[in-house]
Write a structure and sequence with these properties.
CATH superfamily of the largest domain: DNA polymerase, Y-family, little finger domain
Largest sheet: 5 strands, mixed
Distance between the termini: 43 Å
Strand content: 15-25%
Strand order of the largest sheet: 5-6-1-7-8
Helix content: 25-40%
Radius of gyration: 26 Å
Amino acid sequence: MSAPRAILHVDMDAFYASVEMHDRPELRGLPVIVGGTSGRGVVAAASYEVRRYGVHSAMPVREALARCPHAVCVKPRMERYKEVSQSVFEVFHEFTPLVEGLSLDEAYLDVTGSRRLHGEPAVIAAAIKARIRERTGLTASVGAAHNKLLAKIASDLKKPDGLCTIAPDEVARVLDPLPIRRLHGIGPKTATRLEECGLHTLGQLRAAPDAVLWPLFGKHTQNVRDRAAGIDERPVEADWQEKQVSAEETFDVDLKRAADMHAELAKLADRVGVRLRAKELTASTVVVKIRRRDFATYTRSRSFAPATQDTGAVLKIARELLDGWLAEQPRAAVRLLGVGLASLAPAVQLDLFGQPAGDAPTPRSEATAAPAGLPPAAGRAGAKLDPTLDRIREKFGDASVTRASSLGRGGPKEDGFTGVRRRS
């Protein structure tokens, strides 16, 4: 008999408010409302400190301030929340490709196939929580179970910063005492009608006869009863479209020299270039992520045309983005660097020499063209060289060939490659 599925539901704790408190330490411990500041605004997020006063998301800000007059109102910064969300989802994809995003701060993960590599679901959940905290400074609550419904219920049981597992033989014990309002899909009006019928817990809902449930749910009665019993066969539906290919590195010792940062940037560009070509994609946006010693995080990006697979082209743009940031903060110590490729599209199939497959020559494709700002030869050279280097690394290991600019101190200023001889 095969082992049950292993599903995680990850929910960031008071996400928008937590990001604001992380970025502005003076807000920590205060009742924070993120939302419109006009009289007609609504609460987008509420910190746990303000929730004690009955404030919740989607509530009019005017009502929220009536309940908690000393609350601090902060205007939403969606671009910042998207940036942090991207880091969180990068963590998810390090454990499984089966990630179903529900919002910027919430997702289902199917880790059934990840157990051999990463351990049991509770171990994976703990590792995800720790990695999110390390990279973003934020906390997440995780529920682990054998289906999506139970995983979502579990993630809510020990908020904030919780980890809760519901094993198959614990379902009735955990669910039966819970209020019916815990069941996703039971709205306030339906909950009130159920309570008027004397049904207050999921156990009572599960055992209720058709005579009570049918007038409320009709043909959906059995489905509601099954859900109250924790039965759910829905699969995790992974996002079908790749949004970004990225790599990042957190350093044991902060980087202070631009030369060392450039060396690390070259390694990261190599890594994302290999991944991009392995997925047979091209990119037309380069993103550089920089985290300072004090955990302040910055991103710089540039889009270009035509799209490319060329590591050298990616590295050139990444260097320029990093140099622009260093000009703004010349004495900054860097704790983390990342390189990402976005605006992805399927690549034109190329042979080893950058020529589309077939006998007759055809015009240069977008995949072989150099992005704007690069000499035309750059794209053609990369299209010839990069796939060859990928094959060498695949056969002999990642260390078999190294970009010269990644050698850091004492390395040549011009880009090139150096071989590492391996014993057979």
